[in-house]
Amino acid sequence: MGLSRDSLPADVMDQFRRGGVLPAHPLALDEQRRLDSVRQRALTRYYLDAGAHGLAVGVHTTQFGIRKVGLFEPVLKLAAETARDWRSGTTVLIAGVTGDTTQAVSEAEIALRHGYHAALVNLAGLRNRTEEEVLAHCRKVAKVMPVLGFALLPTVGGRHFSYRFWRGFSDIENVVGIKVATFDRYRTLEVVRAVADAQAAERITLYTGNDDHILLDLLTPFPVRQPNGEETVIRFRGGLLGHWSVWTRSAVRLFERTRTIPDGAPIPAELLALDARVTDCNAAIYDAAHDLRGCIPGCLEVLRRQGLLRGTWCLDPNERLSDGQVEEIDRVYRLYPELNDDAFVRSNLTRWLSDDGVKIPLFDEEEAQ
Question: Counting C-beta atoms within 10 Å of the first and last residue's C-beta, which end of the chain has fewer, N or C?
Fold first, then answer.
């Protein structure tokens, strides 16, 4: 389904506002570091069958280097076509756009042409610009299509922006959401407060990218008190996460558990404890011990173990698993078997890899037992 430049289709808007699981889509490469289109398509099918509510493509997990090797448009096109052909119903498609204003606008136009619904604006390439200049950049991209902001920590190429920046960003009319991936509670609260102070909570939906507190972000009410004493309660409605590119079936089930708790109801201690377990898994997969340098290879390694990928090759040969990272992934696999979805993948891998996969019934070993 196409869309206009300044609005989301009603069904997409409804799904996006309700929130959901939006995996950041990895890149499948072969030994020569060329696109493996069969396994790239299989990943998309996996996420959709796992129950993901949408996909984010062309983002950090997809590897920013796709632009230098001419893969940006082919990868976006393949994911969008696969999503349309594989599953009926609503799938929210988010495209990552980056670079200077000319590049970002061009990428947004490409995404719009292939049926994407919104652009996640990565601002890492604008480190030397003032915040007002960056806001002007965002306004120009927002003239092409709806926009999500991206509060990304500097460790993986982002830049910290002030409360004032996020307050101004929240005033941009065509902003529909913000992904908060600061890994910093203070800065997370600044983004939340900016949205509330702009009276934009009904228009801007927050998605967590804080891999160190995924469940806690989804469970926490964020009350913002105004000078007159009134409070606006902001909630993260979903997650747009590289961590959710693995064990996605399990992530969907965890997300659904958070949705069953009414506002104001007590949160079970077991669910709060689960936040720590998920964070421990993320520490291994995302390579927290080495400042997240192995985060993309870590995700690829899990997908390789499941058979979805054949290797952990990245476009940059120097981007590889860190020393000890394999052992850390081994550890969390042993400790938290309930958090992986290996059985689900095993049941359906042939289906996802097959040209005739749509004719093979979806199967879940756990539900069949």
Answer: C
